[in-house]
Amino acid sequence: MSQPSGGRAPGTRIYSWSCPTVMSPGEKLDPIPDSFILQPPVFHPVVPYVTTIFGGLHAGKMVVLQGVVPLDAHRFQVDFQCGCSLCPRPDIAFHFNPRFHTTKPHVICNTLHGGRWQREARWPHLALRRGSSFLILFLFVNEEVKVSVNGQHFLHFRYRLPLSHVDTLGIFGDILVEAVGFLNINPFVEGSREYPAGHEVPCSHALPQGLSPGQVIIVRGLVLQEPKHFTVSLRDQAAHAPVTLRASFADRTLAWISRWGQKKLISAPFLFYPQRFFEVLLLFQEGGLKLALNGQGLGATSMNQQALEQLRELRISGSVQLYCVHS
Fold first, then answer.
1. Greater pLDDT, 282 or 1
2. Residue-range domains of the chain with CATH
3. Of 67, 85, 206, 302, which has the maximum CB count within 10 A?
4. pLDDT tens, position by position, 227-269
5. Phi-psi group of 127: left, alpha or beta (phi > 0 → left; psi -120 to 50 → alpha; rest → beta)
6. Which of residues 325 and 154 earns the better pLDDT score?
7. In sequence order, which ranges of the chain are alpha helices (DSSP H)?
């Protein structure tokens, strides 16, 4: 698993405004707390697909499933399992099973324990359609899992087995999976709304106290169909932007931009793709900040503590739909 900071291989580049440097083999970076570690997303897996959920499930964790229902689909299932053995069959804490072949398409949810299915729960009015794309969010909270389909709450299912026993995701049946994402922090909007209505872009987020060591900025969203650019900038009281991260889709480059317009390319794979999820983490510490994208550490940039404390605004613009902005 790629972690946002700790455990980099020797030779990872660390970026500053002046010039790039290279880490020495013995150099260590303070790790980002475990709560910020992101399991890398999986794109276009072959179904049936079974994978380990890094760290298992816990309250606040979310699994994102993006794909298409084939025109001739009968059914598919998403199973959150307690292990991955074939014989005996593992317990399934949450079985999510859309069915399209009946006169009234619906979803069946259930739990498999000790080789026996429990009492099934049925939800009618299925929001999924044959031949259509979908976005399903599974949010695991203290007592139940909540599921939204295409941005609308669809169902909730109370746990019948301990959530801590779940460590495996299985996807089976008639489904074309485009992406599976794993998020370790609840990205839902604080307050009365459970599901993110999204933030309009450009988006401005106030930083009334500036930034201090240990603080983390989280930006999560979806890249639009025909993206051009994506920019995250931090501005001070004079509206100057001493820190700007810019992704350009035309030449597929990611770069730091200084307040004077100086551009420093980040030598790393370009991890933004149309109609795919992304997560940007900026971890602030003494001497600067570290960047991670989709769980992969992409280096750091230097910045003195006084400049960090004078920052007052986070501004986001570009070809994205935002789901979570947190600092």
1. 282
2. 34-183 (2.60.120.200), 203-326 (2.60.120.200)
3. 67
4. 999 999 888 877 777 888 899 999 999 888 877 777 888 888 8
5. alpha
6. 154
7. 305-309
